[in-house]
Amino acid sequence: MNLKAAFQDSERAVSPVIGVILMVAITVILAAVIGTFVLGLGDSLGQNANAGVSVDKTDTDATVTLVDKGNVQELNVTNTNGTAAGSKTLTNVGESKSLGFDGNDIQVIGVLPDGTETVIRTIEKP
């Protein structure tokens, strides 16, 4: 039995199969990249607010300190009841504000320069 002749037929088929698979993969990747540019799908992605805060919590209130501004314009510290009277704003690094729980949780909301708001942290009442 001639081993070289037995394996020679199968070795010839490997190269065209791999070539076809690579060509199809490259075509699919190119179509996806061109499609995202043409349809503008990359533009619709939003940006999340990102900021660093430090929280000191007691039984009645919480003190929130802005440690790193990240990409936010300001931070709103507010009760989850939504009243404007229970809201405080942090704009500078190192600035601290205290807010009472008043029976509700406290949320730290980051405001991006375009006005988009994202909840960064929720401080649960004790």
TrEMBL record:
Residues 12-88 form the Archaeal Type IV pilin N-terminal domain. It comes from the Archaea. InterPro entries: Flagellin/pilin_N_arc, Pilin_N_archaeal. Keywords: Membrane, Transmembrane, Transmembrane helix. The chain crosses the membrane at residues 20-41. It holds the Pfam family Pilin_N. PANTHER family: ARCHAEAL TYPE IV PILIN N-TERMINAL DOMAIN-CONTAINING PROTEIN, VNG6441H. NCBIfam families: arch_flag_Nterm. This is Type IV pilin N-terminal domain-containing protein. It comes from Halorubrum yunnanense.
